[in-house]
């Protein structure tokens, strides 16, 4: 297990390094770094001082090492627009994105698992076909457009739910959360539903496929022959076994959900990281872009790592793979 | 999606029909699904409408001389101020006929989608083929790149590329190619690795045919079926991604509006109940994507030997 962990950690570190190089090249090689990193209002003397301070007179490989060193210390530059450290700016908005992503994941599981289970147990029932068709639609529908339609129906025409923003928040552990207030929850319903669209379809399909496959297994036949109740077979023997792939994919998709929240946050003006990055791109606030990209990369690698480790705990074959 | 198909039990191999050519059999099998035929018909109709937009659109939405600002934000079915035409799908804030705007928008959306898919296919298939044929370190390097690309969400990668490159139709195509080539590379490599061990490749190698000929005339044609399936699905994906990027204001420029940009333009009017500016372009987008996916689903069933009845 230790060897497996070490190997995975090393791999993860290597990917972070590669991605930091890509980000570095992206910002520093495309376009003039002076233009990118020094505020356009600076005069000639300020510019030269900044060039020296930022080490832009050094050769490229040395600059990369400096960039890397600063990044390791958590210094990813200051936002031109907010004049705050970029990292801090993003971390401030992270709770909003996280709660939205968690909310969307919960919605996907709560809706997707039962529907997928039903569609898998009764594949030929008309309702099951409807569920499957719905999941295909969920893959096809452009998320941002569905978001707009949700606003149109539930906020503009019916007036049931607020259209944009985060609503009332409560500060817990120094971070502002919406899900703890009634108003905040009301604001969260539509964005979470919108963000979960793709994921719900995915959970439905995975669960359905898993159930259909598992129902044919010998141990299910044996359980049935033993005279166990259908409910026990479904929820203990089948359900437990299909949870592994579903949990893996949902876990892996969590990163994707955070990435895709860029779209949902823009539609619903949800003040999270995604909205921040879109605004930053529109005003060319490059330090924030770099910081966001590095945080997302780290997040992805951590998620992959956690999923891998969880997987190896659930299924010993994974960690023994390299040994035999 | 692959896990969903993997769940379907494999059935016995197909019975070879006597005088049928493979292509005829493919057509016959494809036509078995009415839904897929419907999708194909719908797609052809949409493609034709997009191609013929300058001739069938009621007005040229980008000829400012034809627009009347007084006709702005009219409801669907309203007659134009000068009484010459009816705005069946309403008008936007500039007094532009939405139907014409959608027809022209489809041109950009389909063009970007198909163009990026073809380019990504060329890049991805070449690299995948190279990985499979060369093996060893080349294979390792290419596949690590593929893994890296696929572990990162397409929307974010495209967002970042466009943030660095700026808006523009060509830039969107570049971004889409960068985020999509990996799917093709993985698909081609997987198939090519299997095909390469077959006897006909061995025979070709024994005949001392040049490597280029073996790859392009023998190996590649046999890797086409899965490539076609992935390609179809990726066109739909590319169209959706382009629409999303344009909606976020990072995709196509305002002078060449795709469906995504049309939807974005209607966003601010949505809250005042003027739904049609965003609604109809969205429907056009949705119908296009669903039509392509219906075709793709059936292609996958027909071209996947594991699912053969």
TrEMBL record, chain A:
<dbReference type="InterPro" id="IPR000515">
    <property type="entry name" value="MetI-like"/>
</dbReference>
<feature type="transmembrane region" description="Helical">
    <location>
        <begin position="100"/>
        <end position="119"/>
    </location>
</feature>
<feature type="transmembrane region" description="Helical">
    <location>
        <begin position="242"/>
        <end position="270"/>
    </location>
</feature>
<feature type="transmembrane region" description="Helical">
    <location>
        <begin position="290"/>
        <end position="314"/>
    </location>
</feature>
<keyword id="KW-0472">Membrane</keyword>
<keyword id="KW-1133">Transmembrane helix</keyword>
<dbReference type="InterPro" id="IPR045621">
    <property type="entry name" value="BPD_transp_1_N"/>
</dbReference>
<dbReference type="GO" id="GO:0005886">
    <property type="term" value="C:plasma membrane"/>
</dbReference>
<comment type="similarity">
    <text>Belongs to the binding-protein-dependent transport system permease family.</text>
</comment>
<feature type="transmembrane region" description="Helical">
    <location>
        <begin position="185"/>
        <end position="207"/>
    </location>
</feature>
<dbReference type="Pfam" id="PF19300">
    <property type="entry name" value="BPD_transp_1_N"/>
</dbReference>
<feature type="domain" description="ABC transmembrane type-1">
    <location>
        <begin position="94"/>
        <end position="307"/>
    </location>
</feature>
<keyword id="KW-0812">Transmembrane</keyword>
<keyword id="KW-0813">Transport</keyword>
<dbReference type="GO" id="GO:0055085">
    <property type="term" value="P:transmembrane transport"/>
</dbReference>
<dbReference type="Pfam" id="PF00528">
    <property type="entry name" value="BPD_transp_1"/>
</dbReference>
<feature type="transmembrane region" description="Helical">
    <location>
        <begin position="131"/>
        <end position="156"/>
    </location>
</feature>
<protein>
    <submittedName>
        <fullName>ABC transporter permease</fullName>
    </submittedName>
</protein>
<keyword id="KW-1003">Cell membrane</keyword>
<dbReference type="InterPro" id="IPR035906">
    <property type="entry name" value="MetI-like_sf"/>
</dbReference>
<feature type="transmembrane region" description="Helical">
    <location>
        <begin position="12"/>
        <end position="31"/>
    </location>
</feature>
Automatic annotation (TrEMBL), chain B:
<keyword id="KW-1003">Cell membrane</keyword>
<dbReference type="GO" id="GO:0005886">
    <property type="term" value="C:plasma membrane"/>
</dbReference>
<dbReference type="InterPro" id="IPR050366">
    <property type="entry name" value="BP-dependent_transpt_permease"/>
</dbReference>
<dbReference type="InterPro" id="IPR035906">
    <property type="entry name" value="MetI-like_sf"/>
</dbReference>
<dbReference type="GO" id="GO:0055085">
    <property type="term" value="P:transmembrane transport"/>
</dbReference>
<protein>
    <submittedName>
        <fullName>ABC transporter permease</fullName>
    </submittedName>
</protein>
<feature type="transmembrane region" description="Helical">
    <location>
        <begin position="35"/>
        <end position="57"/>
    </location>
</feature>
<feature type="transmembrane region" description="Helical">
    <location>
        <begin position="275"/>
        <end position="296"/>
    </location>
</feature>
<dbReference type="InterPro" id="IPR025966">
    <property type="entry name" value="OppC_N"/>
</dbReference>
<dbReference type="InterPro" id="IPR000515">
    <property type="entry name" value="MetI-like"/>
</dbReference>
<dbReference type="Pfam" id="PF00528">
    <property type="entry name" value="BPD_transp_1"/>
</dbReference>
<keyword id="KW-1133">Transmembrane helix</keyword>
<keyword id="KW-0812">Transmembrane</keyword>
<keyword id="KW-0472">Membrane</keyword>
<comment type="similarity">
    <text>Belongs to the binding-protein-dependent transport system permease family.</text>
</comment>
<feature type="transmembrane region" description="Helical">
    <location>
        <begin position="108"/>
        <end position="133"/>
    </location>
</feature>
<feature type="domain" description="ABC transmembrane type-1">
    <location>
        <begin position="106"/>
        <end position="296"/>
    </location>
</feature>
<keyword id="KW-0813">Transport</keyword>
<dbReference type="Pfam" id="PF12911">
    <property type="entry name" value="OppC_N"/>
</dbReference>
């Amino acid at each position: 297990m230790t060897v497996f962990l070490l190997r995975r950690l090393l791999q993860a570190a290597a990917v972070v390094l590669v991605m930091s190089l890509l980000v570095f090249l992206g910002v520093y090689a495309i376009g003039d770094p002076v233009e990118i990193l020094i505020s356009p209002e600076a005069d000639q003397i300020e510019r030269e001082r900044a060039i020296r301070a930022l080490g832009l007179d050094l050769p490229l490989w040395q600059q990369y090492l400096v960039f890397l060193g600063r990044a390791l210390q958590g210094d990813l530059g200051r936002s031109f627009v907010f004049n705050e450290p970029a990292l801090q700016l993003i971390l401030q908005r992270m709770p909003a994105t996280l709660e939205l992503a968690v909310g969307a994941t919960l919605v996907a599981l709560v809706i997707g698992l039962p529907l997928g289970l039903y569609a898998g147990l009764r594949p030929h029932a008309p309702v099951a076909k409807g569920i499957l068709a719905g999941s295909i639609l969920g893959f096809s529908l452009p998320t941002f457009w569905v978001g707009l339609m949700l606003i149109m129906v539930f906020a503009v025409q019916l007036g049931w739910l607020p259209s944009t923003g985060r609503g009332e928040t409560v500060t817990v552990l120094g971070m502002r959360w919406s899900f703890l207030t009634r108003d905040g929850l009301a604001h969260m319903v539509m964005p979470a539903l919108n963000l979960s669209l793709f994921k719900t379809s995915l959970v439905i399909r995975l669960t359905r496929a898993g159930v259909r496959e598992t129902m044919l297994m010998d141990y299910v036949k044996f359980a049935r022959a033993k005279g166990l109740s259908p409910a026990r077979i479904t929820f203990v023997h089948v359900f437990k076994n299909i949870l592994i792939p579903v949990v893996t994919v949902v876990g892996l998709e969590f990163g994707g959900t955070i990435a895709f929240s860029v779209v949902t946050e823009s539609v619903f003006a949800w003040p999270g990281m995604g909205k921040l990055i879109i605004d930053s791109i529109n005003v060319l606030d490059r330090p924030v872009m770099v910081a966001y990209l590095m945080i997302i990369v780290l997040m992805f690698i951590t998620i992959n790592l956690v999923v891998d480790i969880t997987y190896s705990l659930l299924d010993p074959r994974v960690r023994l793979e390299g040994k035999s | 999606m692959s896990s969903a198909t993997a769940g379907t039990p494999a059935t016995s191999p197909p019975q070879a029909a006597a005088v049928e050519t493979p292509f005829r059999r493919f057509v016959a099998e494809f036509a078995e699904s009415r839904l897929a035929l419907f999708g194909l018909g719908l797609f052809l109709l949409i493609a034709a409408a997009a191609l013929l937009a300058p001739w069938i659109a009621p007005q040229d939405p980008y000829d400012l001389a034809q627009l009347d600002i007084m006709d702005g934000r009219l409801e669907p079915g309203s007659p134009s101020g000068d009484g010459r035409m009816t705005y069946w799908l309403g008008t936007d804030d500039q007094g532009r006929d939405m139907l014409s705007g959608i027809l022209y928008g489809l041109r950009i959306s389909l063009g970007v989608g198909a163009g990026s898919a073809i380019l990504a296919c060329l890049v991805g298939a070449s690299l995948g083929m190279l990985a499979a044929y060369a093996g060893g370190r080349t294979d390792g390097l290419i596949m690590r790149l593929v893994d890296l690309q696929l572990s990162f969400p397409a929307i974010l990668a495209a967002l970042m590329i466009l943030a660095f490159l700026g808006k523009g139709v060509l830039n969107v195509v570049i971004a889409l190619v960068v985020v999509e080539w990996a799917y093709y590379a993985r698909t081609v490599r997987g198939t090519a690795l299997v095909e390469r061990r077959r006897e006909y490749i061995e025979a070709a190698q024994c005949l001392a045919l040049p490597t280029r000929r073996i790859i392009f005339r023998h190996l590649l044609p046999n890797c086409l079926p899965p490539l076609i399936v992935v390609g179809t699905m990726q066109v739909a994906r590319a169209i959706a991604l382009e629409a999303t990027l344009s909606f976020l204001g990072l995709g196509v420029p305002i002078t060449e509006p795709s469906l995504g940009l049309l939807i974005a333009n209607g966003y601010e009017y949505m809250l005042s109940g003027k739904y049609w500016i965003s609604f109809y372009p969205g429907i056009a987008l949705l119908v296009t994507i669903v039509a392509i996916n219906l075709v793709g689903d059936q292609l996958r069933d027909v071209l996947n030997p594991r699912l053969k009845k």
